[in-house]
Queue: 2 jobs
Job 1
Amino acid sequence: MKNIIFIAPPASGKGTISDYLVNNFDYNHISTGDLLRGEINKKSEIGLKINDIIKSGQLVSDDIITELLKNNLLKIKGSFILDGYPRNINQAIKLDEILNEIKVDNLIVINLTVPKDVLKNRITGRISCPNCHAGYNENIPSLMPKQSGICDQCNTTLEKRSDDNAETFEIRYQTYLDETKPVLAYYQDQGIVRSINVDRALNEIFNDIEEMVSED
Ligand code: AMP
């Protein structure tokens, strides 16, 4: 299977698609957002430094995130999904260096497209279970928990990410347009970019993704 890089705006479904690929095709999933939130929860030196940056919707420094990414990528055996890296051209260049060093190729860059208003609606309703990590959405009837604010699967109180609000969304979306979207042009030159409309039913999205990642 191909190694995947997602280039996509916030709340476009990178995590949901990654879970599907991990469960069905044995992919390794590296989410740089999850790595950073892990550092915050551990209250590590890095975690203390980045807490306010993440809350405000800005990107953390390239050095911090590249080091974390590299440490995790070196541990992986098998195909991987990069969810959240690279977020700018400098990170794309650093990633090329790391992949050359560990002799990895067979890459596909998947560009998830979805209208801004749909993303905003998703992000402002997004909640998840801190215990079993099940995801829900208060703005989407089919994704609401049975009892408001409580996990259907383990009865834990659901939580909202500190950066999932309307104000921070605007900053994150603008950062995506200014810094991350231009990374597509970097990969377009290599002929490895595939785009997919993710404002559709999940089963249709999963089918298209499956075809993309098993291309020869
Ligand atoms: P995500 O979970 O991908 O939405 O990321 C949440 C937040 O983590 C982002 O808004 C950034 O503050 C930070 N972050 C995640 N990945 C990166 C990255 N590659 N470079 C810089 N900041 C990042």
Job 2
Amino acid sequence: MSDMKTIILVGFMGTGKTTVGKRVAERCGCPFLDLDDVIEENAGMAISQIFEDYGEPKFREYEREAVRSLLDRPPLVVAPGGGAVMDERNRAVFDEAGICICLLATPEAILTRVEKESHRPLLEQGDKADRIRKLYESRRKVYESFPLKIDTSQMSIEQVADRVEELARQPSPAS
Ligand code: S3P
């Protein structure tokens, strides 16, 4: 893709943003950026430590700062954390920075993918299946409001990457 725009893969935890994002970046020959890595670098500590020491509001501040930094970067493929889109200021930056594609998955598929992981503080409070269902439900409207979305539940990484490339190539309605 020569006239490449920044591709922002949004979506709940475990929908495949990072795995797919790396694959799409590889295919396009452009950099991949995981915004959680930017946050960890800026804060000098792991995400789980930020939550533990300072709480979620401070994490969201770091997140907003990392999101804003997208405006100064050349075209790339980005995976923000699952909660970033809940803040309309971040959504405005995403709109300005590039094209947003939302990855969706059923809570069951998400659980299968994140079951054995323990680095996401928001899923470590109580029963994981229950946390996913409740948090997903509270965010569902926002995820589903993105015009470009892919239900990844039954798809392989390559299939999702194909679809991302296809959607990213489509002219935007405004252009
Ligand atoms: C979060 C998702 C995580 C990370 C943090 C909060 C969320 O990123 O930013 O734990 O609020 O959904 P991933 O979606 O990459 O797991």
